Amino acid sequence: METGLIAPALAGATAGLAIAMPLGAIGLLLLRLGMLHGFRSAAAAALAVGCVDLAYCAAAVTVGSKASPLIESWGAVPMVVSGAVVIGIGLRQLVTSLTAPDALAAPPKPGRPLAVFGRFVALTAMNPLTVLYFIALAGVLAGTSSGFEAKAAFVAGTGAASISWQLGLAAVGAVMHRTISARTGRVLGIVASAIVILLGAAVIVRALVWG
User: Distance between CA 196 and CA 211 in Å, rounded?
Assistant: First the structure.
């Protein structure tokens, strides 16, 4: 890599970690998938999350100031819708955990990796934190005068950092998959579902009160 591209790549890596490291609803879903089904399924989900982060970053770099005012003009609607989707995901998980006691002892298969990838692409695209980050990043990069190569290095750094972190979460979930008991896994699944619901509710409250 050229010396002049190292700085934007590192800046992109920092941006990627900034969105990936906070353990929100998607991170919890990824961990839970690894706990229940091991690394293969969780890795497919991790790649999906990282790819969406990369795509949003590329869009922010490309359209900059044109997209940010448009999205902001929608007010609280995107955040309310996204929060509702997250709550729905959490409720579905919670009902499954509470009504199927044996689900974690012999959990249903999540589908082929490609299907898992597609599902997590959709979930991440609707994730409130991802949407908020895209809006903020578009505004920050609106006035940049960097050339194409520097912007490409920034986007590549963002994607690489995000994917690396998500794969790390997948690995952690897979380790837990091998070590925890079915009962402990069920309790963790219920707790994770409750946290996901609370995160979605917090997004809606924030959008309506401070939006």
Answer: 21
CB neighbours (10 Å) of residue 65? 12
Rounded to 5 degrees, what angle do the CA atoms 29, 31, 37 make?
95
Q: How far apart are CA 153 and CA 38, in angstroms?
A: 32
Q: List, run by run, the mean pLDDT of 10-residue segments along the chain (211 residues).
A: 74 82 81 86 94 86 67 72 78 75 52 88 79 65 65 87 93 81 72 81 80 57
Give the pLDDT of residue 187: 77
Q: Could you give the CA distance from residue 158 to residue 27 in angstroms, rounded to a whole number?
A: 17
State the Cα–Cα distance between residues 30 and 23, nearest whole angstrom. Answer: 10
Residue 60 pLDDT? 79
Could you give the 3-state DSSP secondary structure of residue 1?
coil
> How many other C-beta atoms are found inside a 10 Å radius of the C-beta of residue 106?
8
- Read off the pTM: 0.73
Domain parsing of the chain, residue ranges: 3-210
pLDDT, residue 29, reads: 84
Q: Are 138 and 72 in contact (CB under 8 A)?
A: no
Question: Count of alpha carbons within 13 Å of 101, Cβ hemisphere only?
Answer: 0
Segment (H or E) for 186: helix 182-210
Q: How far apart are CA 139 and CA 8, in angstroms?
A: 17
